[in-house]
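[recover] target loaded
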């Protein structure tokens, strides 16, 4: 069996060079979720070795429908680095990705550490501010197909993110309307309530899951709470804009 570090190198190189690869579980059908997280950690450690710095984490499978679709009862998570953060309004280089898609999210930034089993009130007390966001997800697996352990190993598909203007932590984001448009045409309409019923629940889950990995959420970390709608595929030449009720809007162009 290929070592976990060897698998991490495969996944890391696929992301670095935007090269599609076969699912790891094609040749390793017994690859576990724990293996996936170990590969993810080793893969992101390679990025940090190249100079990237920790920026926070992203949450995935945060809608009940997605959980049911893949047969799981728990959300998943991935790691964010500073190199993944994109400047709001700036272009997205399509050539850097294999199958890029975008989904609207809520972003939290923390003012103090958060770890383990916490209540929603405790999680909110650790929040410095909240903002509208868009995450760029990109599976490196051929045809955007994968098993759960595959996607976790591939950093839970997280590849980039845009964050809009920060609003006070007390801003109610439990049920805000969202409109995503591409070239002025609505492509996704939804609500932040699709994120576990309330995005703060995603932050609660983040504290718990990260603690299982022997880590904690740190002051200054950005936490992407998870997709509020289905992800939309991106092509060169598109102009993407998402409007969030009460939080404002953010946008970017997709460049070749």
């Amino acid at each position: 069996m290929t070592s976990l570090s060897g698998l991490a190198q495969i996944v890391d190189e696929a992301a670095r060079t935007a090269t599609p690869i076969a699912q790891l579980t094609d040749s390793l059908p017994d690859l576990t979720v724990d293996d996936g997280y170990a590969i993810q950690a080793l893969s992101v450690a390679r990025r940090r070795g190249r100079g990237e710095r920790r920026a926070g984490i992203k949450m995935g499978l945060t809608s009940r429908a997605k959980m049911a679709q893949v047969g799981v009862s728990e959300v998943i998570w991935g790691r964010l680095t500073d190199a993944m953060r994109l400047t709001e309004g700036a272009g997205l280089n399509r050539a850097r990705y294999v199958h890029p898609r975008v989904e609207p999210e809520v972003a939290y930034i923390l003012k103090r550490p958060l770890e383990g089993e916490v209540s929603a009130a405790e999680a909110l007390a650790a929040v410095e501010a909240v903002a509208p966001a868009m995450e760029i997800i990109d599976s490196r697996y051929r045809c955007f197909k994968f098993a759960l352990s595959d996607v976790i190993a591939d950093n839970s598909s997280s590849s980039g993110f845009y964050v809009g203007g920060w609003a006070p932590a007390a801003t109610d984001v439990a049920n805000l309307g969202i409109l995503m448009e591409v070239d002025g045409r609505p492509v996704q309409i939804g609500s932040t309530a699709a994120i576990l019923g309330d995005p703060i629940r995603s932050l609660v889950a983040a504290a718990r899951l990260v603690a299982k990995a022997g880590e904690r959420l740190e002051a200054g970390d950005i936490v992407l709470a998870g997709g509020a709608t289905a992800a939309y595929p991106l092509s060169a030449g598109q102009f993407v804009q998402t409007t969030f009720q009460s939080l404002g809007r953010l946008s970017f162009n997709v460049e070749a």
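[recover] notes: The mean pLDDT is 94.
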